[in-house]
Amino acid sequence: MKTRRFKFVIERTQTGYSAFEVNEPIFTTGATMLELQTNALEATNLFLEEADKIAKMSQLDFELDFQQFFEYYKVINAKHLAARIGMNESLLSQYVNGKKKPSKKQVNRIVDGLHEIGRELLDLTLV
Predict the structure, then answer these.
(1) What's the pLDDT band for 1 if we cut at 50, 70, 90?
(2) b/e for 12-49, b at 16 or more Cβ within 10 A?
(3) Residue spans per domain, the chain
(4) Which of 16, 37, 39, 85 is 20 to 30 Å from 24 by CA-CA measure?
(5) SS3 labels along the chain
C-alpha cells in the first residue's frame, strides 16, 4: 500500500511563516521553520482525525521558492553558489529575486549543488 504524502507550500509572513497543503484544506503558521513543520504535522493529523489515521513527519514535503530559500538561509551566498555550479551569476540572481522562474532542469542543477555542499559539510571535521 502506497504511503500518502502531503505537500506544503511555505510562504514568508511578517511574523514568521505560513504553509498550505496543495490538495487538502490544511493550513498552518509558525514563527520559525521548525515550528512551522511541527505545526504542519499537527494540522495534518487534525485533518486525518475523522479517518482515524495518523501522519508522520516523513510523509510531509515542504516547498519553498528560491527567493524565500535564500532569504531564510542567508548563510548561502548566491554569487558563490552560481560559480560553484557553473551557472551564470546574473541568472541565479534573477531566480533568487523572483524575476525569472527556473526550469525543472535548472532547479535540479541548483538543488544538486546545494546537496553536494551539504554532503561535504557533513563529512567535514574542524580542529
Answers:
(1) low
(2) eeeeebbbbbeeeebebbbeebeebbebbbebbeebbe
(3) 6-63, 75-123
(4) 16
(5) CCCCCEEEEEEEECCEEEEEECCCCCEEEECCHHHHHHHHHHHHHHHHHHHCCCCCHHHEEEECCHHHHHHHCCCCCHHHHHHHHCCCHHHHHHHHCCCCCCCHHHHHHHHHHHHHHHHHHHHCCCC
Domain 6-63: assigned CATH number:
3.30.160.250
- Half-sphere exposure at residue 11, Cβ-oriented, CA atoms within 13 angstroms: 9
Say how many C-beta atoms besides its own lie within 10 A of residue 62's C-beta: 15
- Give the model confidence (pLDDT) of 2-42 as tens digits: 789 999 999 989 999 999 999 999 999 999 999 999 999 99
Of residues 57 and 12, more confidence is placed in: 57
100 pLDDT higher than 80: yes
